[in-house]
Amino acid sequence: MTPIDKRYRQEERLKSRKQIAALFKNRQSIGVYPLRIFWQCSPQKETSLPKIAFSVSKKTFKSAVKRNQYKRRMREAYRLNKGKLTEGLVNEGLQGNFMLIFVGKEEYDFKQIEKAWIALVDRFIKKNKLE
Fold first, then answer.
1. Where are the domains of the chain?
2. Are strands 29-32 and 51-56 parallel, antiparallel or unpaired?
3. 71-91 burial, b if ≥16 CB within 10 A, otherwise e?
4. What is the mean pLDDT of each run of 10 residues along the chain (131 residues)?
5. Is-contact 99 21, C-beta < 8 A?
6. Which residues does 2 contact at the CB level (< 8 Å), separation at least 6?
7. CA 123-85-98 angle, 5° bins
8. Lower CB density within 10 Å: C or N end of the chain?
9. Start-to-end C-alpha separation, the chain
């Protein structure tokens, strides 16, 4: 088993409007407060990294500075703890598209967001039997 790269590369970013729309149309999601993740998995012939996008509601946080701060925290939590998710998908031969949404309304620091991300990945793996 090779160690998982801790970088958040360009090819890991979900940018396609069609793929993002398909995530919400598919409606597969789970949440661990203050995060919710939508996903869509498909069989993949070659190994590739999962693609992920991050979102924070403009309705909840009016200030762009605050929204960007939470997106940076979510990206960092993903970057540091993506190994388990990536490993599970690669072992099953799946390509995953994900949208991570911050649904909290209060102030959260990085440690709380990271803890929620780890719990969310564990629930995702258990639900999809990727172990």
1. 13-128
2. unpaired
3. bebbeebbeebbebbbbbbbe
4. 72 92 89 94 80 95 96 95 88 89 95 96 88 64
5. no
6. none
7. 85
8. N
9. 14
